Amino acid sequence: MCAMKKTGAKTALCVGINDYPGTGSDLSGCVNDAKDWKLALQKRGFSVTTLIDKQATAAAIRAALTKLVRSGAKGDSVVFTFSGHGSWLPDDDGDDVDGRDEMICPYDVYSGGTVMDDDLHEIFSLREEGVRLVFLSDSCHSGTVSKFFAPPPSVAKNYPRPRFLHPRVFVRSKQVLKAIDRVAALPKTPQAKFPALLAAGCTDTEFSWDAHFGGRPNGAFTYFALRALAAKPKTFASWMNLVRTKLPTSAHPQSPSLYGSASSKQWRLP
After folding, report:
1. What is the dihedral of CA 87, 25, 32, 212, to 10 degrees?
2. Which helix (H) or strand (E) holds 180?
3. Which of the residues 14, 85, 105, 166 is marked catalytic?
4. In a domain, 68, yes or no
5. Catalytic-residue membership of 85
6. pLDDT per residue over 20-71, tens digit each?
7. Is 212 in the active site?
8. Domain ranges, residue 160
9. Is 100 helix (H, G, I), strand (E, B) or coil?
10. Nearest CA to 54 among 102, 108, 100, 104?
């Protein structure tokens, strides 16, 4: 007789990308974010897989995330954390009224690697009923910013910078570039495309900031989110309320947000 899978298992995938070859837009705190989430989740009983920098290609992220989601059974908790650049491309299938498909940027984004919101939706939809699937994203979900940001050279090393990579940085197709300019002029409409509870570092019209705290680089959302866990909130909603007591600030103008059903926001923290 085959042994039955134990319910209540806890598994996670933590991705952190500082290095974006070819873009001239490397970050500082994302690898620390992934390592910090790994440690925090392990303390809560999770088995954690990490993908760091060159490990985190588009293909590797999709494969590891698919394996993670498919491994979950009813009663299990599954967590995916991503720290890195976010961006968007013109919608190619007409399912987004604002004309944008949002994306998380993998290590190989400059050479054509993409992990689109449609990819995430497809993978998350593999979730078995009864699995608590949570996506923690410390990246920009902004589609309204049409100018690429660069910090002043005199303070670039420790100056907070947005985790948004404008699509013009990595797109070279003239046809797509024309579409980018056209879509960038459209108003941004928040989308709810993930069949998971999404804890985002900012709203759809904001940046998530790559920052430094005590001389150590971290994402502002990750830094304050992990410290909020120390207060032992009982639910995801109460945890996010604690994070929002620290963000936004003048240095980090971002509003962490939960996206999901009313019931999922009241899930107890694992």
Report:
1. -110
2. helix 174-184
3. 85
4. yes
5. yes
6. 999 999 999 999 999 999 999 999 999 999 999 999 999 999 999 999 999 9
7. no
8. 10-265
9. strand
10. 108
